[in-house]
């Protein structure tokens, strides 16, 4: 396994592998890896001869008062985990490599980046689409793997790949959870032991929503109210949103029908957790 830090070396490596006719699978991450990330790596390995993992805490996707500087980082641990998974390349650029002085260009997906997480994080998805587009241009993969954990991000990236003709196959891998149901996330490190126990309420509320819908309740307002009650009675979390959207288009569902994405965001102190389920 090699660690590559600059753009030209990364390009040269990919070029040489593409010439050989082999497929390159790509897993973009912000590091501080956990089983969720490893599941994406395993999926990429199943599909492709080579796997590139990028580790880059992308400043462009953090708001001014967000956690960019304190975002958890542990490159040595990440490198060991990638080595054990049989990753071929870690692309690990410095911020100045990707955003040199004078950087001015951003990729924006219109309305779908303004809803859900885009309401409380207005420039977040602009940062995500920009970095992913840049990484696609540098790594030039055949396949890219993202997690369903970030459901809105997955839909936005698929849209961008299609709209900008990247010609990259996308795979959206399922959410990996702790045994108690808490969706794995690098940001779980911020949670106290009490928060962690209480945060199970997110998954429990999603299961409640699923049960309601299975039992033919399609009244979104009623299901939202039941989820709100569960979360507020079982935790100290502050709800940012509970939304019901079409699982492909993200169009709001007034009545739950078809394939519904139930998406939630809840604050525990300053830490904002997201989770979702497609019913
Ligand atoms: P991050 O490092 O948090 O930016 O995440 C990198 C990739 O891992 C994204 O595609 C995420 O959706 C995915 N991911 C993060 N957590 C999970 C999880 N618990 N299960 C599956 N995929 C995940």
Ligand inventory reads: adenosine monophosphate
User: What is the count of helical runs?
Assistant: 10
Strand sequence of the main sheet, in spatial order? 1-4-3-2-5-6
Mean pLDDT level: 97
The rough form would be described as: globular
The H-and-E topology, N to C, reads as: EHEHEHEHHHEHEHHHEEE
Strand content: 15-25%
Q: In a few lines, what is going on in this structure?
A:
With 279 residues, the chain is α/β, with parallel strands linked by helices.
Overview features:
single chain, binds adenosine monophosphate, 3-stranded antiparallel beta sheet, 279 residues, 6-stranded parallel beta sheet, 10 helices, alpha/beta
Task: Please characterize this protein's 3D structure.
With 279 residues, the chain is an alpha/beta fold. It is 39% helix and 19% strand. The protein has helices at 7-19, 35-47, 75-85, 95-98, 117-120, 124-139, 151-163, 193-198, 200-214, 220-234; strands at residues 2-4, 24-29, 50-55, 89-91, 143-147, 169-173, 238-246, 260-268, 271-278. The protein has a 6-stranded parallel β-sheet, with helices on both faces. Helix 6 crosses helix 7 (151-163) and helix 9 (200-214) packs antiparallel against helix 10. The longest helix is centred in the middle third of the chain and has 16 residues, at 124-139. It is globular. The relative contact order is 0.13. The mean pLDDT is 97. Adenosine monophosphate (AMP) binds next to helix 2 and strand 5. The site of adenosine monophosphate has 17 residues, from helix 2 and strand 5.
């Amino acid at each position: 396994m090699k660690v590559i830090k600059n753009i030209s070396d990364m390009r040269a490596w990919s070029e040489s592998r593409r010439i050989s006719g082999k497929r390159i699978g790509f897993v973009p991450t912000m590091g501080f890896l956990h089983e969720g990330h490893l599941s994406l790596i395993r999926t990429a390995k199943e599909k492709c001869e080579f796997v590139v993992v990028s580790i880059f805490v992308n400043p462009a996707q953090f708001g001014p008062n967000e956690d960019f500087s304190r975002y958890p980082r542990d490159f040595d641990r990440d490198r060991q985990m990638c080595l054990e998974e049989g990753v071929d390349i870690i692309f690990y650029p410095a911020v100045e490599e990707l955003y040199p002085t004078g950087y001015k260009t951003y990729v924006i997906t219109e309305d779908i980046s303004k809803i859900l997480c885009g309401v409380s994080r207005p420039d977040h998805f602009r940062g995500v689409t920009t970095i992913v587009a840049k990484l696609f241009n540098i790594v030039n993969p055949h396949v890219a793997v993202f997690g369903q954990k970030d459901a809105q991000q997955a839909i936005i990236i698929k849209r961008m790949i299609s709209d900008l003709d990247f010609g990259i196959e996308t795979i959206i891998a399922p959410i990996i959870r702790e045994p108690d149901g808490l969706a794995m996330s690098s940001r779980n490190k911020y949670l106290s032991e009490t928060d962690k126990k209480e945060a199970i309420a997110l998954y429990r509320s999603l299961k409640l929503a699923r049960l309601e819908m299975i039992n033919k309740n399609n009244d979104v307002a009623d299901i939202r109210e039941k989820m709100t009650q569960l979360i507020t009675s079982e935790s100290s979390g502050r709800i940012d949103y509970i939304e019901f959207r079409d699982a492909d288009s993200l169009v709001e569902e007034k009545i739950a029908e078809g394939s519904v994405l139930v998406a939630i965001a809840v604050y525990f102190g300053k830490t904002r957790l997201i989770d979702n389920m497609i019913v």
